[in-house]
Every structure is written in structure tokens, then in C-alpha cells.
Amino acid sequence: MEFSTPAFLLALPLALAPLILHLFFHRKRSTVLFSSLIFFVRREKYFAYRRRLLEVFLMLCRILGLALIVFALARPYFKKISFLAGAGTEAVIVLDDSMSMQRTVPGGRTAFEVAVRQAESLMNSLNKEDSAGLVFLSGKRGIEPTREKRKVVTALREAKVTGCAGNLTLAVRQAVELLKRAQGVNREIYLLTDLQETMLPKRKIRLSDWKNGRLFVLPVSGSSENCSLSGGIPDPSLKTPGSSVFLPFTVRNSSPRDRMFKATLNITGSAVQSKTISVKANSSVNEHFVYVPVRSGRVDGTISIDDPDLPLDNTLPFSFSVADVMKVLLLTGGEGGNVPDPFYYLRMAVEPRKHVYGIEFTDAAFKTLGVYDLKQFPLIFLAPGSSFQPEAADKLLGYLRSGGTIAALPESEGSSRFYSALAERSAGELPDLFGATAGKTASGIIFERGLASLNDLLQLNLLRWRRLVELKSSKANVLARCGFRPVIAEYPCGSGRLIAFAFDLRRRFSNWPELKSFPVVMNSFVNYAAGMKTRTIHLTCGGTVNVNEKNVTFSDSLGASGPIPDGLFRETLLPGIAFFSGGPYETAVITPSERESTLKTVPLSEMRHVFDSPVSLLTPDEEPGFQIARLRRGTDLAGISLLVALILLTAEFILGSDLSGFRKRKGDV
Q1: Half-sphere exposure of residue 573, counting CA atoms within 13 Å on the CB side?
Q2: Nearest to 319 by CA among 234, 229, 404
Q3: Alpha helices of 74-158 — where are they, by DSSP H?
Q4: pLDDT reported for residue 108
Q5: Tens digits of per-residue pLDDT, 559-592?
Q6: Which of 19, 17, 11, 4 is CA-nearest to residue 69?
Q7: pTM higher than 0.85 for the full model?
């Protein structure tokens, strides 16, 4: 308990005045002899012990009544917040700028616009000598606590909703760290949010190490209806002019009613196709567009729907490359002599005539590898034979780490030097891929993952294996099996991948090169492997990507541009397409967070369980500055003290009048 005007407590001894007066004017009893007056005065019986108890009670009423009056003048209260009046205050506003803040509130405004106005109101409630800072839930750069509060107000007015989901834990902890370095005695955090369910962390946010501070949670409520787009990653296979490109997308309706939308395919800003889609309540529909490019180059576009809620998730960007010719490098150890060409049947299957399928093979050997720029090849077929050159291994590892794809064939029989050295030089990124070669009398092949559609081909049951090399698949994605044995496996390495074959592409391992299914499978495999080696990366808003090089610059579809000095691209707060000059990637397709599209909130009371220390929950019905000021003051007991004093003095007057006989004498007169 504390007092607003403690000087009045000096008058508290005056409450003993009734006792002092009683003792001072107390008269001793004296005995007077007199004849009996029984026939002249009405006889009344008094019980002496009841009278004494009543006198003690009246005395206590007088003392307590005066004490409570003094208490009321001293303004006692129970303090809810450790707030030192007159001392400086350091405040940080944590503003939720995640995509769900685009929800509509009564009046037609968005939750974010309301939150910004409330934040400005909180800024106005601070004193001139107080400091204020700003932290965004999306991770966007804010403002450290400063007395120039005009900077914070300007930043609030310029802020926009992002496509991110936001990280409540990181934002609150960042605000706490800012206040720990601040000089003010009073430290406060104001969290303005729409209480989106996906915002809540799995573990409690630690506030127990933050002394002399308090966190206020101010909710902003709004509509929970929305429709969103997701998906939209084009088929990764090779794309050439005149070929059909499959553009899938999903329309999700989070509203409690059936809705109908118009979906539009836009290429370089122009609408080229549209369709009407009906989606039932709380369900989704998978749809697609088919686009046929007419020339080579990069195709950038969007798929959009006409939904008024959360505009950021109504447009889905995409980007892909269309190539006249795809270059594939055929790399051998270069033993020479009478060693058979390991890629003979591959050439016949994929490139019977030059550029007939839009693929161009280039031959190279380890000793000539240094003259090639490997970035121009989306796929390298590797047959090391029995040769080993450390320079070639290091260059191939650099190619893999920068996003390249290598299709690795086994070494010559009895040799394992090259792949063992490659695994050793990769520092754990690649395992020792191949084991022993053994005769294998088996038939058939079953494809998985990205090659699963090839299982519909004929003649796969005619495939007879003569031998297979053991593939170590503990860290691999298996793409094909013979029974339970992996025959094609995919290993990640840096930003790229190595696809290992348990067989070579000649007839000494199987009869497959003689079958009609072989050219179909090899063409599909090249499209899969080279198509997946794309220079387009897909990111979710708020994510980052390492472009590896420090001299890369970017520009995006929203008009922003600039260098990436540290090699880490962070400009992903809004959906769109970013274009890079230099580095392993050409473009980055940035899409909004799907979990923000379902507008589901939690009760305000749930926020008490999010933190490991008590927090103050505000209501949106009253000005936040008034609520915070009231919470700082705590519970005022002055009114209660006066009320109790009035009751006690009233009781003393009534009972004291009866005891003195005042009422009876007044009636007799």
C-alpha cells in the first residue's frame, strides 16, 4: 500500500483525541447519603456490564472514524505497476505488421490502421522527457528509444502491412533488450496486435529477467472472412517455346459461406486468361492455368483473384525460364585408349540429331575442365572412370554448392578413389556414395518422388539387371528402386544436389539401353534433373537467402533496388519477384505466408499464458492512454476509507444518543 499525499499521516495521532478527552474529563464516583426516593423517581434498571461494553464500542468508533478520515486525506492505494511518478519513462511499441492485420474492422478501416492510431495516442500520452521506440513483428527495422518522438510517429505513419507471419517471441525479446540498455527508471512495452492464433509461440516468452518493467497488450479485433491463393510453382521440367507450361494454384475459402471468384492469369502485367471458380465454405479448390510461351527468355507473371479481404494473399507471383537449347556437360575421367564411351546410349536416346529435343551435349574431360564456366550447364553427367584429379573434385564441389546438379555414374570396376575423395573433400556434405559392385539377377524398376509418373511406361517389366553397385541411401532421397534396393538416389550438397546411379548407361549392367523405355526415361530424367536446377528460388515473406557473393545487386517488381553487401538477401517483406545481377540465382519469387490467410484469433485472456510473468490486458473500448494511467495509479482506497468512517460515526451518533438519554429527554420536553 502506498499514499498519494503521505503528509496527512502526521495527523494520525489526532485519532486518539476521544480517548484523551475521556481520560481527562473522567470523574471519580462519590457516595452521597440520601433518603429513599423510590416513591418520587421512576426506577430504571441498567446492566453495568452492557453499558461498559457499549462505551468501549463507541470509543472505538470515534477513534477509527477519525483515523479513516486522516487515511482518506492521505489517499491510500494498492499499486498494480511499479511506476515511479515524476521519473523518466522508456517505452517501446511492438506493432503487429503481419498480413492478418489487413483484416477489416467496423467502420471500413483495417486493423493495422486502427493499431497505428492507437500507437500515436500512446505516444501523445508520454511526457516530453520520456523516450519511445518502435519494434515491428515482421522483423523490419524499427527505431531505438529516443526522445525525438516525432521520428517514431513518422515511422508509424509510413509503416505498411507485410506478407510475413511475424515472430512474437523475437519482437518482444528485442523490445526487452532495448529497454535493458535504456536509462529511464520506468520501462514499458505496448503490444498492439490482432491476436492471430498463428502468432502464439509454443513456449512461454521470458519476461522474468526484466526488472521494473511492464508489458501492456492492446488487441484490435476485426473480420475473420478471407479467401487466399497458394501454390503456383510451375512444373520444373525443361521449358521450350511452343511447349505447354502447367501453372497450378489453390483457392482457399476461409469464410463460413460459399463464394465465387474470378481467377486471372497475368503475364508481364497483361491478363491472358481467366476463369470463374466456385468454392464452398471453409474449403479449397485446386485449379491450374496452361500457358504456352512463344519465345525463349524469362516469363514473369501472377495469378490473381477478386477478393476484397487481405489483398496481399490475392495475388500469387511466378517466374520461369524458357530456353531454346539446354546445355548438358558430359564429363569423363579421360582415360582415352579403347575405353568405351560411357554416354553413347545416352546420346542416342536424348540427342539422336542435334537440338532435336532442345538439348545440347558438350564433352569434357578432367584435364580440360578448367576452360568451362560450369554455371552455363544446368546438369553435368559424370563418369570418372578410374581417374582422380583433386582440382576437378574441388571444382565440382563448388558447382554443387552454388546450386548445380550432377548425375553421377559409377567408377570403373574395382575403383572408388574419386567418389571417396569427393566425400572427404565435402567435409560431411556428401557421404561415400558407392559401395561394392555385385551381380544382381533381378528385373524391373519402380520410380518414386519426382520420377513417379514414369511408372506408367511399358516395357519396364522387360528390364533385366546383370549387376548393380550398392548405393548408400541413409542421407538420400530415393528416386528409383529395384525391389528394396535403391538404384537412383538424390543427395543434397550446398544449394545443389548429386544424383547417383547404381548402374552405368551401357549394356554391361543391364539390357535397358536396348529397350524402348530407355530414351523416354532418359529424356524425362534430363528434364527433371536440369529443370530442377533452376536459377529461380521460392521464398516466403520474411525469409532470407544467401546469394553467396558480396557484389550482387537486386531489383524487384515493387520498384525497390540496391546492393546486397553481405551476401544475404532480406528484402522479402512483401510478395513479388526480385531480380538479381550476379550470384547463383536470377530471380526470387516471394509469396505471402499461408498460415496468415486463415483469420483465426484467440481470446484476450489467452495472452496471460503466453508470458512467464504477469502482463496488463487493455480493452479496445476505452482510450489506451487512460487505461494505462489508471493501471499505473492502482486501486484508490480514499473513497472506501471515507465511506467506512461515515458508517462508524453514524453508528456512534445513534448509539451514543440512546446511551445518554438524549432522545428521551427531547421527547419529554
Answers
A1: 16
A2: 234
A3: 111-125, 149-158
A4: 86
A5: 888 888 888 888 899 999 999 887 778 889 999 9
A6: 11
A7: no
